[in-house]
Design brief:
16% strand; Rossmann fold; single chain; alpha/beta; 36% helix; six-stranded mixed sheet; globular; 6 helices; 190 residues
Length: 190
């Protein structure tokens, strides 16, 4: 795929991310079962990609959540609690918009996991990062409920599907690392 075409597709994904959706009952039911994992795209963060020269450890140089994004992340956390879904651990990209999304959900302790970092600007690490995520999930205790907070490109590489900002994809991971999507949860922006 040409670079302009891939950028256009990414832009369309961002624009479509503003469209509210609903949670499928199957997703909530599946998420209550052992062996499923919730994979969330970071909440609303105005803009596209990252600014030139951004610094990973400095949130002032990055795209980050705005007030609507923080409210969206809190709404996702509330929806999980309302559905009776307890999260044991949150693994997050080190990008501020993902870390802040994870923290705002208030669903559990947040742990940085570099394999969830965005490869939007440099696709050369996509396969290795996706494989690291697959290995981590294949080796996880099925009784431990994990929430991963990451980026659109990472979710697409892992699941083969596009997501809106703040959307949660529920997956089941086989011991060999293969992934099956079993539903999605998208809470409208408050």
């Amino acid at each position: 795929m040409t670079r302009p075409l891939s950028r256009l597709l990414a832009l369309l994904t961002v624009l479509l991310g503003a469209t509210p959706a609903v949670a499928s009952p199957e997703a909530w039911d599946a998420l209550r079962q052992p062996g499923t994992v919730a994979v969330m795209r970071h909440a609303l963060a105005p803009g596209f990609g990252d600014p030139p020269g951004f610094t990973l450890g400095d949130c002032s140089t990055q795209r980050d959540l705005d007030a609507r994004g923080r409210a969206q992340a809190r709404a996702v956390g509330d929806a999980f609690r309302d559905a009776g879904i307890a999260v044991d651990r949150i693994l997050s990209s080190r990008w501020c918009r993902c870390r802040h999304t994870a923290e705002e959900t208030a669903l559990g302790p947040v742990e940085a996991f570099a394999a969830l970092d965005s490869f939007f600007a440099d696709r050369s690490t996509a396969d290795a990062q996706t494989e690291a995520v697959r290995r981590r999930l294949a080796g996880a205790d099925p009784a431990e409920k994990l929430l991963l907070v990451t980026h659109q490109v990472n979710i697409s590489a892992l699941t083969g599907r596009s997501t809106r900002s703040g959307e949660v994809v529920v997956i089941r991971v086989a011991p060999d690392g293969s992934v099956k999507t079993v539903g999605s949860i998208a809470i409208p922006v408050p």
